[in-house]
Known about the structure:
By secondary structure, chain A is α/β, with parallel strands linked by helices. Chain B has helices at 26-34, 67-71, and strands at residues 5-7, 16-22, 42-47, 54-58, 61-65, 73-76. The model of chain B has no long low-confidence stretch (mean pLDDT 91).
Amino acid sequence: MPTSQVASTSLAAGAVSSATRSITIALTGQPNVGKSTVFNMLTGLNQHVGNWPGKTVERREGTLEHHGRLVHIVDLPGAYCLTAASPEETITRDYVIRERPDVVMAVINAASLERNLYLVAELLALPVPLVLGLNMMDVAKQEGLDVEPAVLEAAIGIPVIPMVAARGEGVHELLDAALKVAQEGPAREPNRPEIRPDHRQVLAHLQELIAPFVPAPYPQDWVALKLLEGDAEITALMREHLPPEVWEQVHDVLHEHEDAIIAVASGRYDWIRRMTRAAVKRPRAGRITRTQRIDSVVTHPFLGLLLLAAVLAGIFGLTYALGGPMQRWVDEHVVHALASWLSVALAGGPAWLSGLVIDGILGGVGTMLTFLPILAIFFASMAFLEDVGYMARAAYVMDRFMHAIGLHGKSFMPLFLGFGCNVPAIMGSRIIESPRARLITILLAPLVPCAARLAVLTTLAQVFFPEHAAIVTWLLTGLPLVVLALLGVVTNKLLLGGEPTAFIMEMPLYHQPHWGTIGIAVWQRILSFLRKAGTVILSVSMIVWLLTVLPTGEIETSYMGRIGLWLEPVGRLMGLGWKPLVAILTSFVAKENALATLGVLYNVGESAGALGQALQAELSPASGLAFLVAEMLFIPCVSTLAVIKQETGSWKWVGVNVAMLTAISLVGGIAAYHLASMVL
Amino acid sequence: MSGSEMTLAELAPGKTATVLALDGGHGFVGRMVALGFTPGSTVSMVRNPGAGPVIVGVLDTQIALGRGEAQRVRVRA
């Protein structure tokens, strides 16, 4: 908060208020530097997660008390540089320029010091004091690098604190250094990078031209530099603020020096070389590092795929061994226990109330609860693989295949988890940095058949095709995946004009997992799922339940039944009556509801055998196939749609998803019915 | 130092090269220079299976690049 001017107005007042005023620290760093670990160590569970205004990027803030003083820490998203090429970069620079934190704490990775200092070179151009946390000193050592923090500190002229954040080393020293700078100001003027000499004159000229017109709070020299770099956002800003004749001149200068970005970047790297010359001792050339040894297997075109298959098998094995029993335990001891307790508690009240609470609310929310153990396992697996550095390797070995269907290598892992549940697939797509690649992944994720859909499929495949159940199950599991691949190619053509998303990805050094960071990540994902998706799931399950009981109390004569009857002409195209249609519609709350609804509508209860006879009597094999195709391609459950809203930040994309999948499922069902009628 | 000019996608595994230029818009160039691919910098090919993405070593880090991106980096081996 910009209270520093107030505190320095008078000495006496300053002394009083500086003891009580809070301090704001902005935490920044490139990806893969252990920044989250530092943030978690500083704030513990005392943190708040939200979104940056108008962005789908996570905003994390925390508070702590240090010697009786309140310290706010704002965790800025990881960014390699401060051009406005990604939302993360825009957020970082806008926050520092507009909000003016008291001090910026930059965490850098000692094992890739030079590249990490590029962000520092950019931060030094901003009008906020800086302290450096030189993290991963242990990893650097393992990789054979010897970094001297004191030498680096003397060279740059800002505090440099050596750290091994994963073991808690240096975190408090970094905080102390940041607070000291926040209170006393920087000890000396830091050594700042300069543009390559051949462009110094043009930069000075540019700055002279724009100086009178640069709006507050932007620093003039920074704006001039960004204009030369070709920064789209700053160019638009200055075009707006410059008188046309000055803009004309500026535009000519920029046009003439179109490749000035190279001069700016080279100037930064020259500075980096000067800063690190004495501070870093490198290993002799040709030494094989630990990461290289591991990668000789992990990124190998063939062995890497085998390893990935083993990792995936491990995750699903864990889900099966741990998640299954936990899911049954929650179902029995929480959901059913709650249901029977509620039915006793509500026994005296009106029947509609216990119906609403037990069948309506608990029906939808209970399913969500039983899925929590599986969600936790998936979130933990993702966080673990990301934390140790494996996720980028999985993306690398899969990129060739994902590229073929217009997707990004990083889309693979989240999509694959969709086989368990679509919710972690969509939430997991946060690891994809490119916003467009992420959006496409989110929209296609529901086409990965989740465990609940597969349960409906295997049960009903037995009913309709007792002799060919296995092959039907395989074909219909494959069908949505084929549709996914085709849609990937098409959306890529439509949305991106055939231009594939750039695949530029750092392969982080391997390091040991930090369990605290993983634990907090899992906890926050689950919490945000419950908080944001919870209300949507709650209201939709209530509405769907009401539709199935109002006005008569029987589903056959309910509004839902009427919707089914009204849709019957559509159903006839697929050879389906209104009952299977209603079953597909109620699967909106939870996919396994399709079975329960069929049981109710055919008056056979929960028995699969009786349901089988009833269905075989009414539906031909062609209709049965059409039903299964439509069910496999239909819109996902409400939990999935709720997280699509949460992750894309708009109902528009939920609408697009629903429209797209409804159409596909309809076309698929009709096609399956007619093709099967000819063959079967 | 003279050598043959090629794109980064053509560099064989284990070989090093000097970056000459980046072909692309400001977005592409900005991202690449931030990762260390400035003209004059030394890069080494770690993995290049002939199809699909490559892994390149630059400034103590390994970066995976799509084949299309690697083709837009001109180098001298």
